[in-house]
């Protein structure tokens, strides 16, 4: 008998009485305004919120990341110094200073943005870059995780993540450090825009 | 200590805790840090009106899944396979390690980066691969500290919580060349980041554990903070996930319930920085999922203990546990420490872990913080009965309880003892009462013996209902 | 109301004043109190140690002593918890089931059955820290545990608020276990003592002169710790305060 069949038969022979599956409500009554809650949660998780820059995205990038050499863009709003669709090997993103992506949607309750291979172009962009800038249309903020997990996007993406602020650790004496193995900072820029996944390229 | 987890040596929790308590700076920090996490968890739990309802739902979803586990595993396998993932099944730790090694060696991989996984700890995978010439790099900071110090993790969420920054400075100075005199956590964390990054680029494969496996879509979900799981899963061309079969949940929508509670219970944060969903391999990449039993199907058949399979490894029971906080994870001598360790480890090896169910005051706060409502302290009580039935307690303890049972069942013998206990104690010299063999008197004064028992007072002052 | 009094073994042997206070208090509230003379112990020490079989004799004797009463009242939460939740060594016949359902801890009996919250004869002009034992807190429902998201309540506080002059102080960790834990206090001595030390330091830091509790076993442990540390804390059972003790 294969291990698979042995395990399955042992589980079926365990003698457990079947129990019913409960319905999960949406728990979405009396919630605060989505954008306000999103900003509060994002700040708590170490992310920064920026309103759409008046002088345009490129000017803001130049000022905010003055020393950046490599800016890798996965959005039509800016070309950066490198377009993600030209990248074929994720490891070549090792020296990216700033990555720029657009989130498909966000979650107010936790301050999370949703990103998949379509938004990243190359998934590693979200983790090998030193800093991540996420464009977000305030119109696509969902109230809570129950709403989020009812999005079909989860079952269509090969890989997707709810990204909440920058990477962090508190493994040494409980001291909170923003910037563990992944990005050191995460900035969400509130900018209207139709979703334009990079898609097609390597993920 | 580190190497005793995978030996037959009986765990002596008292000895381990005594050593831990003797070191004031470490125990004081450990207790305070974990109490802080419990406190943060409370604030989150009290901030969500439906918190207790979410616990009920999570518990019920897990009950349902565990009582239909074979069906959900088949559904998960079907969907993952259709997504282009290779699914493997491992009966036990040995088979799991063999599968991982075969996948890696068949592709000529010699370096593996991995994020934190209690299951790979359970399987003792790292030494197995290293003995076969592979480089295995833990990329979670706490786990990396423990790897470099050749010690097991002492906590399932914060693996190096028993260490102070100065200890980490020592370990890193010896192993990755940081400045021994610099114990600033920021400096140390940055040192580890710089040391680890090249491995992500160089590694031929990345590995993660699994927090939830969704049957409906064949998805593996990881909940992490450091970004290392997503680097492990997205940079190397090959991805492997180790999945305990109890991690299954039916549908995506159920994640809403669990993700809302996991990090809040663990660390008091609303969510982990990264909640990642690995469904299908990247274009040009390759994914393998290993479904591991390793004792779980036996546990499912245990009427009193199958509930422990609901555990989502949040660590809340450890943070709240007053015994764990004061004895440190290593004193439990197993992969799992604290209350959850006291009920899981004996299922692996009752003899080795027979002391753990007694390392508890049965105070019950563990059951109340558990997001999936495992009746942890009741299971600990039941394990005690089994440990005794199986003859795993000391002769002295067994005999003394037998005698106590006899005395307390017989009013005459009990009166002789109770009226004598106080008198006898009163006449004993202090040196005898407080000798090192007297566990009560080592660090506590004994109660002052009264002139008479309540029973004697009643006989003298009231009219007894019944005469003996 | 007719009440049978159960005085647990360690209170009988070491703290007779708690037994006396319980008896007098119940009489003050108008109960007619019977003390079955052949009583010993409920069996908890054996069950708690995993030696359930050795508890059978004590449990059988308990049933024999108390089967004829509708109310069995005891000033010890952990013993009542054993009778209610773990009293399984003895045969579960009608008499056993009746005893298990009729056994009350003193605070819940006063609060839920007699519904008394005023003690005009009682006055306790001191700063007091309340210690709820874990068994009374989480198994008997004396109060809301801090970790649950539920509307707060506290039966012992409801009673003590009916005592003149009493002032409450709150430690930083109000329902942290003190480390007594039954046989745990000797089998896991290093952790037990450390927990006790932490507990009494927390109470003293809050400014308590007295620690009051419905469980004498926790108080015995904490008192032993405080005395060894040379702390001036004092310890008193809730029955003594409600019965009118001034110090």
From TrEMBL, chain A:
Domain LUD: 91-189
InterPro entries xrefs: FTHF_cligase-like_sf, LUD_dom, NagB/RpiA_transferase-like
SUPFAM superfamilies, alphabetized: NagB/RpiA/CoA transferase-like
Organism: Silvimonas iriomotensis
Name under which the protein is recorded: LUD domain-containing protein
UniProt cross-references to Pfam families, sorted A to Z: LUD_dom
Superkingdom to which the source organism belongs: Bacteria
Gene3D superfamilies: NagB/RpiA/CoA transferase-like
Chain segments annotated as coiled-coil in the UniProt record: none
UniProtKB/TrEMBL annotation, chain B:
Matching Gene3D superfamilies: Alpha-helical ferredoxin (1.10.1060.10), NagB/RpiA/CoA transferase-like (3.40.50.10420)
Keyword S-adenosyl-L-methionine applies: no
Domain 4Fe-4S ferredoxin-type per the UniProt entry, residue ranges: 298-323
Keyword list, A-Z: 4Fe-4S, Electron transport, Iron, Iron-sulfur, Metal-binding, Repeat, Transport
One Pfam family cited in the UniProt record for this chain: LutB_C
Name of the molecule in the record: 4Fe-4S ferredoxin
Organism name: Silvimonas iriomotensis
Automatic annotation (TrEMBL), chain C:
Cited InterPro entries: Cys_rich_dom
Lineage: superkingdom: Bacteria
Cysteine-rich domain ranges (all copies): 3-83, 130-221
Protein name according to UniProt: Glycolate oxidase
